[in-house]
């Protein structure tokens, strides 16, 4: 089942991230998909701030993976945009099963390397300030999160 959320501003997207963060658990995986500038990094920054991560969040496009250990749980922010689906050399399972939260931008390019259960969030630009955001849970635990926050 898909869940639909209309974000009318950055603040709405931040609120969604904070609400999902309040349902976090160790080994949670969130996959963010959507065009450039649609709100993926904004969402991640708000999620991280709600987790009490002290560092400023920026897109890890050139680093691929950024790790943050100052928050309530470790946060692994992964951007696979530049990899063109080739994640050989990256042990993603190490991040998925390391007791933290893993957020992957452009995860639709590596679907064969995603865990069996995760939360997919798809950002669509509706207008300059509005985003139509779809939450697609993969697994019952993620379904419960969607029910709790939408």
Describe the 3D structure.
By secondary structure, the chain is α/β, with parallel strands linked by helices. The protein has 4 helices and 7 strands. Strands 1-7-6-2-5-4-3 form a 7-stranded mixed β-sheet. β6 and β7 form a beta hairpin. α1 packs across α2. The relative contact order is 0.25. The model has no long low-confidence stretch (mean pLDDT 93).
Helical percentage? 25-40%
The geometry reads as globular
What is the arithmetic mean of pLDDT? 93
What is the strand arrangement across the widest sheet? 1-7-6-2-5-4-3
Largest sheet: 7 strands, mixed
Number of strands: 7
Q: Order of SSEs, N→C?
A: EHEHEEHEEEH
Given as residue ranges, the uncertain stretches (5+ residues, pLDDT < 50) are none
Number of helices: 4
What is the straight-line distance between the termini? 13 Å
Strand percent estimate: 25-35%
Given helix and strand content, the structural type is alpha/beta
Q: How much is the radius of gyration in Å?
A: 14 Å
Gist?
The chain has 150 residues and is of the alpha/beta class. The chain has helices spanning 10-21, 40-50, 92-96, 140-149, and strands spanning 3-7, 28-34, 65-68, 75-79, 101-105, 118-125, 131-138. The two termini are 13 Å apart.
């Amino acid at each position: 089942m898909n869940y639909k959320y209309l974000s009318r501003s950055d603040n709405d997207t931040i609120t969604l991230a904070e609400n999902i963060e309040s349902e976090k658990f160790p080994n949670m995986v969130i996959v963010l998909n959507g065009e450039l500038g649609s709100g993926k990094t904004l969402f991640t920054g708000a999620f991280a701030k709600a987790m009490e991560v002290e560092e400023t969040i920026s897109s890890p496009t050139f680093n691929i993976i950024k790790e943050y250990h100052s928050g309530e749980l470790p946060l692994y922010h992964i951007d696979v945009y530049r990899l063109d689906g080739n994640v050989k050399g990256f042990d993603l399972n190490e991040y998925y099963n390391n007791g933290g939260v893993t957020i992957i931008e452009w995860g639709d390019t590596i679907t064969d390397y995603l865990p069996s259960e995760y939360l997919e969030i798809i950002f669509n630009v509706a207008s300059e300030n509005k985003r139509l955001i779809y939450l697609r849970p993969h697994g019952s635990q993620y379904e419960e999160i969607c029910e709790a926050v939408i």
